[in-house]
Amino acid sequence: MGKGAIQVPVHLQLHHAAPCPRVVAERLRSASRGHGAVLCTWNSFDTWTAPLPTLRFSDEEIERGRKLFAGDWRFIAAANTLAALPPMRGIEIAFAGRSNVGKSSLINALTGRNALARTSHTPGRTQELIFFAGSAPPILVDMPGYGYAAAAKSKVKAWTALIHDFLRGRANLARVYVLVDARHGLKPVDDGVLATLDKAAVNYQIVLTKADQVPAGELDARLTSTQAALAKHPAAYPEVLATSARSGAGITELRAAIARLSMERT
What we know:
Blueprint: H1 21-34, H2 59-70, E1 74-79, E2 92-97, H3 103-111, E3 129-133, E4 139-142, H4 153-169, E5 173-181, H5 191-200, E6 204-209, H6 216-229, E7 241-242, H7 251-265
Parallel strand pairs: 2-4, 2-5, 5-6, 6-7
Antiparallel strand pairs: 1-3, 3-4
């Protein structure tokens, strides 16, 4: 690839057609001049380091997302049983995923707070539903991880049941972002949560985390295969987002998506 050329994988192509890379690159150049889009880049190790283009969001939506998460976010409640859940007020957005997938890190990246949600390299550290609120809706919910955890089996069973009960019965739950490690993709352990969401008709969207740790070609294939797998899930939002809490890639777009959802539901 020549100097200054732009490499554009399938998941960054515009619309649902598949134009040639030259056409897509030109669209991205044009968009970056007129609409504030950020062009995709890869580092010397061919890993994805820049945010997704902002083409599907207007400048107004991008700014609304920035303002939403620029305010003061704070811890408001924790619950390890349904009876301990805080009263429903306004819409909630939950973050679910396997243990150690990066839920807390993503919440910290969204809010610009390094320690709002407690992070750990030990799977299973988050053992309750943790609620955070800003100056405006929505309320963010950091959920315990499912799958392997460094905790007693009885505890894992209890919080796994809590996860499913919460997803089935929280009437003000506007969307669940199901986080999936970009290095590994969807696993059989994710099937139970997706099935619960489908059955309860709770809207959810897959968000790939740790995308900066995946080579560009592999990330492209992961996005394509994940999106294809969602075709059989009726409650799934069809578009898959890729993010990195460490590099900030995709965070702007996720903020805008949440701001748009908040506007639609309030």
